[in-house]
Amino acid sequence: MTTSEHNTTVFEIFVQGKFCDLELAAIIHTLQTANMVHGAQRFAWRIISDRPGIVQGAGACLVRAEPVIPDHCLADFLIVISSRTADPAIWMARIRSMRRQGRTVILLADAATTFIARTQIETGAVTTHWADAVVLRETQDQPRLTENLSEFSNGIITAAGRAATAELVIGLLARDLPVSEITEIGRHLLLPEIRTSSSTQPFAPEAFHKFYDKAVSDALAIMGENLSDPLSIAEIASQVDISQRCLERRFRAVFETSPGHYYKQLRVRRAHHLIQSTKLPLIDIAAATGFGATGTLATAFRKFYGITPTDFRGKHRERVLDYSAKV
């Protein structure tokens, strides 16, 4: 059954033992919500596995999975929820079948990590959950690995998964539903916003500043209030009432980087957000983020995101899945 045959888009969800319960729940609940908002069974799904029958997730979730029939019963979308210890052979073969039919494959977190580690990506970009990305960069040469929520390359979407899974599914549904229904789905899911695929993961650590010690928390607050007119680290340390050396030591303990580098990263992230979500001239964005000139902003932006602000704005579109052909 495909979209063209019954006006129903079918999602095939491939699970393996110890799959992420959250990812499966997010996919199914988002599709259920979409059908409810749309007022008809516009989206359907089935669950398959390399070991059909009852499959248990990493937590308490149990699902009944159908067997995989090689090269048959292909759906419109294949979403793979793997696990770190499972054999990828069957879903890798399933990927090849889907790509031959020109259909889209989505690999979430662990599956994306396995795919990236085993496949030499020569064009396009890839991503996975940030924690796995750290390991991949330390153990392999991965020049095309980004920190975005998802990336699309050669018919395959690699994604961070976890709590960002619902937004990814919404992006897939956006191909078939009007904007009014997409936003209504987001409201029903209580999402504060629907982030685009090019949004950087994870949530900025400064959002959780209340969990850090007072000196780091206060320093982050000062940085956030002074993005357009950056202070020196010495000035920040003075306001926090500790020595600069002590602030640097505490910062490295939390973020594994210097406060100066982190401060610049905050400003670049803010510039990224303004470029993506507003039509402000780049010179105004440079001023609002303390870079002063567009050239200085471009240098910092390229260092963090691998693309200039001008090129990024040219590629960006107002849609959830916003993929670039290049890293």
Cross-sheet strand order for the largest sheet:
3-4-2-1-5-6-8-7
Give unreliable regions as ranges: 1-5
Largest sheet: 8 strands, mixed
Shape: globular
Number of helices: 14
Mean pLDDT: 90
Distance between the termini: 35 Å
- Beta strands, count: 8
Tell me the quaternary state.
single chain
Please provide the ordered H/E string of secondary-structure elements.
HEHEEEEHEHHEEHHHHHHHHH
What portion of residues is helical?
40-55%
Strand content: 5-15%
SS-based structural class?
Answer: alpha/beta
Report the C-alpha radius of gyration, rounded: 22 Å
Name the features.
single chain; 327 residues; alpha/beta; 8-stranded mixed beta sheet; 8 strands; globular
Describe the structure.
An 8-stranded mixed β-sheet has the order 3-4-2-1-5-6-8-7, sandwiched between helices. It contains 14 helices and 8 strands. α2 runs parallel beside α6 and α8 (214-225) crosses α9 (233-240). The two termini are 35 Å apart. The longest helix is centred in the last third of the chain and has 19 residues, at 259-277. The chain has helices at 3-6, 21-38, 89-100, 110-118, 130-139, 165-173, 179-188, 214-225, 233-240, 244-255, 259-277, 282-288, 294-305, 309-315; strands spanning 9-15, 43-49, 53-56, 62-67, 77-81, 104-108, 150-153, 156-159. It is of the alpha/beta class and 327 residues long. The model is unreliable at 1-5 (pLDDT under 50). The protein is globular.
Secondary-structure map:
Blueprint: H1 3-6, E1 9-15, H2 21-38, E2 43-49, E3 53-56, E4 62-67, E5 77-81, H3 89-100, E6 104-108, H4 110-118, H5 130-139, E7 150-153, E8 156-159, H6 165-173, H7 179-188, H8 214-225, H9 233-240, H10 244-255, H11 259-277, H12 282-288, H13 294-305, H14 309-315
